[in-house]
């Protein structure tokens, strides 16, 4: 399961000297002087097919490097953005990053004395090349950067954008920087596997096979010696297989959902096993196809929203990995308390079957032998689908289907296709309803952008959209999202966000059902210094841009 998007300020890296606020620089010196030692095994539950072909291209999100996360240890970004804690930004390949007042221009100072793993120097030209590659190749613009100009200005690089990047600072800063001397010879950067992975990161590929990937620490990394000598990346067929590996200690670091994580993981070695669900601003929602019955009817969407048992979802589907989603705006709490509009501060979800039936009756629905009949006289029927093996999501849609059947009488079915089919269905609109995550950031903009921005429909390619999968159209919501993103002050952003919440609550473009913490499991038998609830310098997900930051913060156990 994937997560995207983030926001900005500046923190300290354990491997680099302390940094001040955004716009301030680091001296680039390393605090890591001990030799690399030992190994860690990192794993995913996506199946052996990921390792069938070596794809180290960081712009191919489904390739082996990005799927497993080992690309994060090879290619590095200008800065790393923290979606938890204090939402700080840590300059990485940049020693300094400065935004102009309306966030349409970013000035970057490249870090000095950095080398690519083939020995060639990293320069400002590599930054210019990478962002121009994105600018000139729309298929590589995964974050919707909308660059207008990339140029050098003395020792700096200046990036200009056609719109404010206030809400997408993370998308801009966390682009993987690639070497011009290699990539200028690549004919099609959208498809090339890039078998020779040249990066600035602390690791290089030692071996790649269908059995796994082994990375070895560089001896000349700009940030100093990586604490861990080798990283081993493995794939398991599903969550069950990976859980067994975590329980036995075969795997040290992963990101999976675990049913009853305390009993099934932590208690297997309570001294060392850690499960952490970082509570980011990202809810799970029933994303409904608003272009077809029954979810093209706001009355039906409202009724379903009124009978969902969110407490059961938190307990049974999510095993209390995160707090229950309680506010009608869909904004997770307490993380998002400051953003909830005054009129909704105390409005929480309540199961109201009688109220839901009245909404339906007023809209012309009837019942026959307990079955819900729509205003045209047809039985109401739809299918909820999520990938097989995604235990939390499948349990979630099973709960929802049962709730809707027993309370409203609609024929709610469940389907569990393979993940590739599901992703294709979601993008093309070949679904009735799915349980899906939203983007996360340091404010709720991404939550509403993902389910209410009709710009994604206008930008559809081959009938496939990249977001707003429910194809909800509301010009006012789209305008407000743009207004928020381009606002130059907090008051304007607050006003736009309050109006967006009102549209979301009243029109129910999607049905919020639970929080979506960024999950991770790790053990402290070999290394300490991991992020945690008490030390939120990053999330602990090994597939995120911050994975390299986590590695550089580790220390051998006992030291």
Automatic annotation (TrEMBL):
The protein's name: Peptide ABC transporter substrate-binding protein
Keyword Signal attached: yes
Signal sequence, start to end: 1-20
A cellular-component GO term for this protein: ATP-binding cassette (ABC) transporter complex
Any Pfam family hit: SBP_bac_5
GO BP terms: peptide transport
Solute-binding protein family domain span: 89-444
Gene Ontology MF terms in the entry: peptide transmembrane transporter activity
The keyword rRNA processing is assigned to this record: no
Domain of life: Bacteria
Classification via PROSITE patterns: PROKAR_LIPOPROTEIN
Record keywords: Signal
Species in which this protein is naturally found: Leifsonia poae
CDD domains: PBP2_TmCBP_oligosaccharides_like
